[in-house]
UniProtKB/TrEMBL annotation:
<protein>
    <recommendedName>
        <fullName>PRELI/MSF1 domain-containing protein</fullName>
    </recommendedName>
</protein>
<dbReference type="Pfam" id="PF04707">
    <property type="entry name" value="PRELI"/>
</dbReference>
<feature type="domain" description="PRELI/MSF1">
    <location>
        <begin position="1"/>
        <end position="157"/>
    </location>
</feature>
<dbReference type="InterPro" id="IPR006797">
    <property type="entry name" value="PRELI/MSF1_dom"/>
</dbReference>
<dbReference type="InterPro" id="IPR037365">
    <property type="entry name" value="Slowmo/Ups"/>
</dbReference>
Length: 248
C-alpha cells in the first residue's frame, strides 16, 4: 500500500488542488525499519477569487509528517496548516495498517478537525469551503490509491517482500516474532522437524554461520533472517521449557 501511496509525490495530476510538495526533512532509524518524512505541500484551494484577494494569498501551505514503520507495517500521516495558522487551525491524521485478522488486507483510518478563530469576517464562508474540500479529498483519496495499485499491477508489481532486519557484522539481528507452521518464507519444512534444536544455540543469543550450516546447510540471507525470527518466537512460546545451552 505504501508504494502506491508514495506515487502521489512530489505532485499528482489526479489531485488538481495538489500543486506541488518538497521534502523538508527525512530521517531513518539505524536498522531502516522506521522512516520519517516531513514535507511542505502547496495547495490551490477552490475558493472565490475575491476571498483570495482579501486574504492576500494564491496558495495555501500545509506541513505533512509521514511515519512509515516497516516492522509493524504501519503508515501514520499527520497534517497541519502553515498558512493562516494564527487564524485557522486545521489538523488531519490518517493511518494505514495491516488488518488484525487478515494480514493481506489494509485498514485505513482518517480524522480531521477545524478550529476557525477569525478570517477577515468570512468565517462562515471559509468553513464551508474547508468542509467541502475535505469531503472531496476523502472520496478522491480512495480512487487515487486504487489507481496507483492498478498502475503497479500493470508494471508487473503484484507482490512486495516484507521488510526483514539487515545483516549486521555477519550476524542477523532478531526481527519481530512470528508464528510458524510447516515452512516459512523459503525455509525448508524438513528443517523444522525438531524446533528445540533451533533454540539450543550459543548463550549470547546469536546464531553463528557454522552453527546454521551444521544444522540447516547453506541458507540465503532472507532464510537466515526467518530462522532468527522463528527462534525468537519459539523462545517466547516455550519459555522455561527448553534449555538455552547447546550440547556439542
Amino acid at each position: 500500500m505504501f508504494q502506491a501511496y508514495a506515487r502521489r509525490f512530489p505532485k499528482c495530476p489526479l489531485i488538481p488542488v495538489f500543486v506541488d510538495s518538497e521534502i523538508l526533512n527525512q530521517s531513518e532509524s539505524k536498522d531502516g525499519s522506521v522512516v520519517v518524512t516531513e514535507r511542505r505541500c502547496t495547495i490551490d484551494i477552490e475558493a472565490p477569487r475575491l476571498l483570495k484577494r482579501i486574504a492576500g494569498v494564491e496558495y495555501l501551505y500545509f506541513i505533512q509528517k509521514n511515519t512509515l514503520n516497516r516492522r509493524d507495517r504501519t503508515l501514520h500521516i499527520e497534517v497541519h496548516n502553515e498558512t493562516f495558522s494564527s487564524r485557522v487551525i486545521v489538523r488531519e491524521c490518517c493511518s494505514y495498517m495491516a488488518h488484525p485478522e487478515n494480514e493481506d488486507w489494509t485498514c485505513f483510518e482518517q480524522t480531521a478537525s477545524l478550529d476557525m478563530k477569525s478570517f477577515f469576517g468570512f468565517e462562515s464562508t471559509a468553513e464551508k469551503i474547508a468542509m467541502k474540500q475535505y469531503a472531496s479529498s476523502i472520496k478522491k483519496g480512495k480512487e487515487i490509491i486504487e489507481y496507483h495499485l492498478r498502475e503497479l499491477e500493470g508494471e508487473g508489481v503484484t507482490y512486495i517482500p516484507r521488510w526483514v532486519p539487515p545483516v549486521e557484522g555477519g550476524l542477523l539481528s532478531a526481527g519481530r516474532a512470528v508464528p510458524v507452521s510447516g515452512a516459512i518464507d523459503g525455509l525448508p519444512a524438513k528443517d523444522l522437524a525438531n524446533p528445540t534444536e533451533l533454540m539450543a544455540c550459543p548463550a549470547d543469543g546469536k546464531l553463528d554461520a557454522d552453527y546454521i550450516r551444521r544444522y540447516l546447510g547453506d541458507l540465503t540471507p532472507l532464510q537466515e533472517s526467518c530462522l532468527i525470527r522463528l527462534r525468537q518466537w519459539l523462545q517466547e512460546t516455550h519459555k522455561g521449557k527448553v534449555t538455552q545451552t547447546r550440547a556439542d
